[in-house]
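agent> step 3/5: call structure_predict on target 'Pyridoxal phosphate homeostasis protein' (Pasteurella testudinis DSM 23072).
agent> reason: downstream docking stage needs a structural representation; sequence fetched in step 2, passing through unchanged.
tool.input:
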Amino acid sequence: MSIQHNLSEIHQQIADCCQQTNRTLGSVKLLAVSKTKSLAAIEEAIQAGQQAFGENYVQEGVEKIQYFQAKNVNLEWHFIGPLQSNKSRLVAEHFDWIETVDRLKIAARLSQQRPTALAPLNVLIQINISAETSKSGIAANELLPLAEKIVALPNLRLRGLMAIPQDSDDPAVQQQAFSRMQQLFRQLQLALPEQQIDTLSLGMSGDMAMAIKCGSTQVRIGTAIFGARN
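tool.output (status=ok):
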């Protein structure tokens, strides 16, 4: 199947999920995870109307961003991988969003390194909602103290939360993690009413429906758009 066909299918699935859960059509954004994918594949997705892309590897992402900027193609780029301190400048200088902030040190570096000519860098705090030792993210009880420090940084804009729950085919397990994330998202909105807390980045190919049911505003889809890894 073509990338255009795949994107059409996913948009229809998102629309169906929204209808089934009384969500407003258009309330869930599709982030195309383009890590390891070729420029040609991304161009095909762009031609099909996709404008927001997620990258896990800093250098690969920067090269893609620069390629499309040189062609005057206006896209939205999200960094969605773990970030080491020595790579923070590249993210601050090139990406529009980072979804994996889990330390004040990284947030402070990103704010300091963000060029003032650019809009503030949009930030999501990553929550390790399933308490997996193999995954990044903070514990739920660390959220508000970190959020309050991030909103004080001048060149960042806190927009919400991101999580990668434990992989499970069990709807009950999925729902437990996603419902907890929805609670934390609402808690953050109530604690910081003056901030634009509008993004809950939850759900991938296998658990997208449950994520949307539990309030996700952005799903991150890779393989179902581009096919298996190259």
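agent> step 4/5: record observation. The chain has a mean pLDDT of 95.
agent> proceeding.
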